[in-house]
Amino acid sequence: MSQDSILNTKSSNLKTEEMVLNMGPQHPSTHGVLRLELALEGEIINKVTPHIGYLHRCFEKHCEAMTYPQIVPYTDRMDYLAPMGNEFGYAVAMEKLLGIQVPERVEYIRVIMAELQRISSHLVALGTYGADIGAFTPFLFCFIDREKILNLFEITCGARLLYNYIWVGGLSHDLHPDFIRKTREFIKEFRPNLKEINDLLSHNRIFIDRTANVGILPIDTAINYGVSGPNLRGSGFKWDLRKDDPYSVYHKFDFNIPVGEGTYGSVGDSWDRYYVRVLEMEESCRIVEQALDQLPEGDVQSAIPKRIKPAVGTVYARVENPRGDLGYFIISDGSTSPYRVKVRAPSFVSMQILNELCKGYMVADVVTILGSIDIVLGEIDR
Amino acid sequence: MKKAEEIFQLLKDNFPASSLELKTDQPTEPILLASALEIDKLCLFLRDSSELLFDDLMNLSGVDEPKSGLLSVYYHLGSTKFKHKITLKVSTDRNKPEVSSVTEVWKASDWHEREAYDLLGIIFLNHPDLRRILMPYDWDAGYPLRKDYENPEFYQGMKVPY
Amino acid sequence: MNVYDIVFYLFAALTVISAFFVVTNRNIVYSAFFLLFTFFGVAGIYVLLGADFVAIVQLIVYVGGILILLLFGVMLTNKITNVEIKTGTINIYPAVIGVGLLTGSLLAALINTSWRSVPASAPQATTAALGTILLQEYALVFELLGIILLIALIGAASIARREA
Amino acid sequence: MKEYFGNIFTALSTIFIGMKITFKHMFVPSVTIQYPEVKPQLPERERNRLYVNMDDCIGCDQCSRACPVSCIDIETTKALPGEDIGKTSNGKKKALWVTNFTIDFAKCCYCQLCVFPCPTECIYMTDVYEFTEYKRENLVYDFVTLTKEERQEKRDNLAKFNAEKEAEKLKAASEPKPEIKKDQPEEK
Amino acid sequence: MMYDFFVDLFGNTTISGIISGFVMSLIPLFLFILPFALFAVYLERKVSAHMQDRLGPMRTGWHGWKQTIADILKLIQKEDIVAKDNDKLLFNIAPVLTFAGSYAAFAAIPFTSIFIGTEVDLGIFFIIAVTGLVVAGILMAGWASNNKYSLLGSMRSVAQIISYEIPTILVVLSLVMISGTMNLHTLSELQTGYVWNWYIFGGPGAELSKFLLIPSMFIGFLIIYISTLAEVNRTPFDIPEAESELVSGYHTEYSGMKFAMFFLAEYANMFAVSAIVVALFLGGYQSPIGYLGDLIGAKWMIPIEQFSWFTIKGVFFVFVQMWLRWTLPRLRVDQLMTTSWKYLIPIAFVNLIIIGLITLL
Amino acid sequence: MGFLDKEFNDGNIVVATAEDLLNWARLSSLWQVSFGLACCAIEMMATSASHYDFDRFGVIPRPSPRQADIIIISGTVTLKMATRIKRLYEQMPEPKYIISMGSCANCGGPYWEHGYHVLKGVDRVIPVDVYVPGCPPRPEALLEGLLKLQEKIRNESMIKKTA
Amino acid sequence: MMEVGLNHFLVVSTLLFSMGIYAIVTRKNAIMVLMGVELILNSANINFIAFSQFGNRGIDGNLFGLHGHLIALFVIVLAAAEAAIALAIVLNIYKTLSTVNIDEIDNLKD
Amino acid sequence: MAIIFVVGIVYFAKLIRPARPTKEKLTTYECGENPEGSPWIKFNIRFYVVALIFLIFDVEVVLLIPWALVYKDFGMTGFLIGGIFLVLLGLGMAYEWRKGDLEWEKPRVVPPSIKKDSIKPKVDKELVEA
Ligand code: SF4
Ligand code: SF4
Ligand code: SF4
Fold this sequence. Notes:
The complex is a heterooctamer.
Chain C: H1 3-24, H2 28-48, H3 52-77, H4 92-112, H5 127-136, H6 139-161
Helix pairs in contact in C: 1-2, 2-3
Chain G: H1 6-26, H2 30-54, H3 65-97, H4 102-109
Helix pairs in contact in G: 1-2, 2-3
Chain H: H1 2-16, H2 45-70, H3 75-99
Helix pairs in contact in H: 2-3
Bound molecules: iron/sulfur cluster (3 copies).
One iron/sulfur cluster binds near residues 75 and 103 of chain F.
C-alpha cells in the first residue's frame, strides 16, 4: 500500500496545508469504482489523481484466449452502457481485417441499434449527471425512457443489457416483427420527454450555475489529450467519426453534428459537454427514423463466416461510440484467436484530462466535471 | 490527405540518420517501423510538421513478441485536419524494454504508456509518472499480458485462481 | 427550598462545574465545547434573575456566535495531526494559590458585606422596557455601539484577511 | 444592477418551471411494475436460464466448445456397439451416453453462443430468471436424466469394453496403445 | 394548565413560561414530533416516488404506511459503532444536543390558541436562540467523527446555518416592527379573521399602509422561506450532506440510533421552520375561512380546528420543501454563500427599512 | 452485549413475538449501501429506478455504510477492489446482509478462467447470503433475490442463534 | 440552606470570575485566554443583572432596575466585538508565527 | 426532557442491538480506502470570516430587537435612531462586500493548456509550427 498515495509527502514550508481527500472507490458519484485522490487547499483542488483499475477485468488477456466470435460477449462488457457500439466497433474492425462485405440490411440494423444505444447511453449520462448535482428526479425520468429502449433491444435479441447481437459479418437475430413499429412509437414519445428534461434540468438556473464556466476545455488541449466524442464536440470542435471517418452506412444519412456554443458560459464548459449530448440524442432520433425508412430487405446471417481465421496482419478500426472514438487494434497470427487485441477506450483517454480540468475548482466541481466527461469504468479498466 | 508512402518519404528526408522502414505487405494498412529511442523526436515532427499535423494519437499499444524476443509498441496516429493516418511500430529488447515516451508530444499517451508498462513491462523513458495503472500498485507477479505470464496463487491472502 | 431554588442550584452547578472543566481540561476543543454549557448555565441564571431578554441575547450571541467563532478559531489554529490537541499550562501551583486567595478574599468580602438588597420584584417582559430606556436615555450609546461594531467588523475582517 | 435582478428573476422562474413539471408528474400514473405480484410479459427471444433437452442431446460437445466461459461441462461415454440409445427428435441417431452435462449458471454469461451451433437444437434459452439460491453450489445444474448409478454403470461398461478390446489388441499385437483421450478439458 | 401551575408556583410568568414549556414539551414530543417525523419520512418517500412516476414503499402495510416504523425499529436494532478514532464523549453528546435543540424549538410553537408549549414573550427569538444548540451539536458531531467528510460537512453546515440566520432574523425583525410583539401566540392572535388579515397580505387592518406592505411582505415571506430551507439543509441547500461529494456530511460516521436522532431531528426541524413561517406570515393557527365551531356554537371545537389548520399549513410547507428537493439540483458552497450574503441579506435589509418607513406612516 | 447477541434456549411467547416484530422491521427496511461495481450496477440502478422501484421494498440507498443494512455486490470484484469491499463490509453495523448479484460476484463469471485480476467469487472475502444468477440479472431477478433474503431474515431466530 | 438570594448569584459570579482569572494566568494557548476573558465578562454580567434585580431600584421606580440589564447587554455586545477582533489577531499571529502559545510568541518576538 | 428521552432511547437501543466490534469496523470510513492522514487540517479561513461577520451582524440585529418593539412610540426620532444604526450596519455590509469578504472561496480557474515543443526538436525550424 505504500505507493498507494503519492501525495503523502507535503512540503513543510507550505503555508496552507494540503489535505488529501479520497473520493471512492465506493462513492456515490464516481460512476463506479474509481478512486480520486484530491489534494485540497481549503476547498480548492490542487491536484486530482485518479486511481483506476478497480474494475480491471483483463479483457485483452481474454481476447487472446478466445476465438473471434467468443470475444463479442466480452466486448459488451467493456462499455456496459453502450454494448451495441462496442460490438459494432469490433465487427467493423474484424470485417476490415477479413475483408468481408456485409449485406446492406445488416449495416442498417447495426446503425439503428448503435443510435438507439447512443440515446440510451446519453440518457444515463444525463441522468447521472443530474443526480450528481443533486437533482434526482431527472435521473429517474431518463431511466424511464431508457427502459423503453432496453425493451426494444430485448425483443430483438432477448437481453436487456449485454446483447451479443452484432456478430462479425452479421447479426445474431433479424429484427423482431414489432421492432419497427415500436421504435417509431418510442421516438414519438421520446421527443417531448426530452424537452421536459431540458426544462427541468438543462435550463434550470441552479444547474446552469453549477455547470456553466466549470471545467472549461479548450480545443487544442482536448485534441492533445486525445479527448473525443461529445467531450471534444463540447469544446466546439466539429469532429465526428460518423462524418469524418465514415464507416458502415453513415454516409447515407443526413444529420448534424452538434457542437458546444458556450450558451451560458465559455465554450467547452461542462454545460456545453452536457448539452451536446442532449442535442445528439435528437440527431440520433433522426438517424434512426431515416434508417427505418430506408431499411432494405435481406438475410442478416448470410455473410457470417463459418470459421473465422484471418490472415496474419494487423488492423485498427474505430467507430464513434457514445463516449467517443472507440478503436480496436487487432493483431492476427493466422489462428482462430487473435494474437493481441488492444482497445482504445474513449473514456480511458478522456479521463486523463480530469486533473487539468479540475485544477483550481472546488470539491463540488470535481463531481460536476467528472460527470460531464461521462466515463464508464468498465471501459477505462477493461 | 497523404499516403503512407509520402509520409515515409517526408520522414526519410528529415531524419536521414534514422533507421526507418515501411512495411507494405500488410493486409490492411502499411506499418512504419522506427527506432525505439528516437520515436519521440519523430512524433514531434509528425505532430508539428505543417504538412502532416498528426495531432491525434489514436492509439498506443504494446505487444509482446516472445518468438523474436521483442516487445513492440504500435502508434496509431491521425490528423484531424488532413484526415490521414499512419501506423508506427517500434520494437525493443524484451529483457531491457526501453522506449522513449511521447507524453510530451501527446498527453493522450500518458495512460496508454502506463498501461503498456503495467501489463507488458515496457519502460518509457522520460515518462512523468510511470507507475502501475490497472493492476494493484503492490502487484509483484510480473506483467500479465506477456505471453509467458504465470498468475500467482495468492494475492494479499486471497486465492487468485478459480 | 422551593422549585426556584432547585432550578437555581441546577443552573449554578452546571455553570460552575462546566466552567471548571473549561479551565482545567487539557484538550482545548473540549474546553470550547464545555464553554457551551457554561454559557447555557449563565443564560439560565439570567432567566432566574428575570432578565429574559438578556438570557436570549446570551444564547444567541454567546452560544450561536462567540462559541462558534471560538471553535472555528480553535480548529483553525491547531495542528491537530492525530495528536490530542492539548494546551500547555504554566505556573499551575502559584496560580492555584493566587486564584484561591483571590477567590477567598472576594467571597469573604461579599459575604461580609451586607448588600442593600430588596426582595426580587416580580419580573415582567423586559424587552419593551429595555427598548424604551434605550431610546430615551441611551440613544447615543446605542449609536456608539453601532460604530464600535462597525469598527470591529472592519478591523477584524481586515486583520483576518491580511496575508501573513 | 440589471444582472442582479435578472439573476433573481431567472432563478425564480426556472425553479417555478421545474416545480410545474414535477407537480404534473405527481398525477401521471406510475410506470412501476409491481414485481412479485405482477410479472412482466417477456418477449419470446428472452435469454435467461438455459435448458437442455437431454432426450435430444447427442453429446457432440459443440455447445461446450462455443461457450466463451467454458461453463458447460460434458462428459460422454461411448455406447457399446450393440446398445441402442434412441434417436433425437429430428432423426439423428445418438451414439454417446451423456454421462455428465452440467452448466454452471454462476459462471454463465447468458450470451447464447452455445445455442446456435447445436445440431439438434436441444439446448436453448428459457425465460426463467428466478433461480436465486442461498448456496452457490446449487447454481450448477445437472441436466442428465440418468441416475448416478446408471452413469457409473455406463462408464464401467465402457471401461470394461475398452479393457476387453485392449486385451484383445494386446493379445493381437502385444504393443501398448495410447490412453483414451477425454473429450473435454479438465477442470482445474 | 401546566402553565398556571407553574405561575402559582413561582408567581413569575417568564420563568414559569420557560419551565412549563420544558415540561409541556414532553407532550408534543410523544404526541407530535415523533409521529410527525415518522410521517414526514414516509411522506417524503411517497412524494418523491410519485413525482418520479414510482410508487414508493408498498409492501409494509397498506401502501407501505408502516415503512418508517419498520425503519425506526430496525435502527434500534442496529449496532452502534463508535470507531476507535472517534472522540467518544463528544461523539455521544452530539446527537443528543442536536435533537434537544431542534426539539426545544417546538416548545415555542403555538399550535392552537390554548395549547402552546410556552408563553415566552420572546417566542420567535427563543427558537432562533436554541438553533444555536443545533449548530454546536453539528459542529461537535463533525469534530468527534474524526472523518474528513464529517468535518467538512459540519463546517459547511454551520457556515450555512449561521449565514442564513441573519436574513431570517432580519425578516422576523421587520415583522416585529409591524406587529410590535415577539410573542408567536400574540402574533397569531393578531391575524385572526380571514385570509386577508394574514401578514403575508399586510396584516390586520385596512389602512393604506396595509396595502403598501403587501409587496414587502411577499418578499419577506420568500426570503424567510428560502433561508429556513437553508437552515434545515434541504435541497437546493443540502451541501453539507451532499452525497455526491461528502458522502453524507456530518453524520457519515453515525449508525444505529444515534443516526436516527439526527434523522428525526432533521424531519422535526422541517416542520419547525415551516411552523415559524406559518405563524409569522400565514396566520398561525388561524383559519382562513372562519371556524366551524363558531358557526355551530361549539366553542370547544375551535382549538381542535386551530390545531388542524396549523398542522395542515405546516405540512403543506413541508410538502413544498420536499417538492423543491425533488425538483432542484443543489448549489455549490460559494453560490450558497453568495445567495445569502449578496441576495437575501441586502434585500431583507432594504425590506426592513421600507417596512419601518411604511409602518411609521 | 445486547438483546440480539443473546441466545435463548427456549422460545417463550414474548421472545417469539418480539422476534417476529424485530425480524419484520429488519426485513422491511433494508437500506443499501449505494455501491456499484460494473455492468450489474447498471441493472441495479434500473432496479431502483421507476420501473422496478426498489423503494417499494423499503430499500433506499445510503451513501455511508454506517447506516446501511445490505450491500449488493453488483459486478466484478477485482483483486484490487476486494480489500476495499471487505473493509466496507466490515464498516457496516450488524446485522448486515449481502446479496451477490450476477455471475461475476458469484464466482468470477465470464472471467473465472483467464481473469488474472478477478476475484473468483465475492464469497472468498465476505459471507454471502443470497446469490442472484444472471449476467446481468434482470431487475426482477434481483428483486427475487431480495425477497429470498427477506425470507431468510424472517426465519432468522434468536432461539439458538448461531451467528 | 437559605433562600436563594443576591449572595448566591454573587457567589456563582465570583467562582466564574476566579476561574476566568485562573484560565488567563495558567493557560498558554491564546484562545484559552480568550475563553477566560469570556468567563470573566459573564461573571460581571451576572453581577449586573443580580444587582438590578435585587439591588436598589433607585428613585424613579422600577425602571432603574433595568439599567443593569442594558449594561449587561452592552457588555455582551462589546464581548462579541472583542472576541471577533481578538480572535482575528490570534489567527493573524498564528499565520505569521505558526503558534498560539503566548510564551512562545513572546520568545519569537525577539 | 428531550435529553432524557434521547438518552433513554439510545440506552434502550443498546439493550437490544448487537455489539460486535471488530478492528476493521472501527476504522474511519473513507469510501473504502484506508483513511489517509488526519482530518484535522487547517481549513479554510473563510469559515472564520463568515462566522465573524455573522457574529457582528447577529449582535447588531439583537440590539435592534428592543428598538423594533418600541420605535413606533417615538415616531420619526425613534426610527432615525434605529435608522442610523441600520445605516452603520449597511456600511459594514457594503465594506465587506467591496473588500470581497462576502465571497466564499471561488474557483480559481486556470483553463488547461498544453505546452508545445517541450522537447527540443532536431528538425528544421521552418517545418515546425509555433
Ligand atoms: S449462454 Fe454463453 S456463457 Fe452461458 S453456457 Fe451458453 S455459451 Fe456459455
Ligand atoms: S451442442 Fe447440443 S447436442 Fe451437442 S452436446 Fe451441446 S446440447 Fe448436446
Ligand atoms: S455478471 Fe455479467 S453483467 Fe454482471 S458484472 Fe459480471 S459481466 Fe457484468
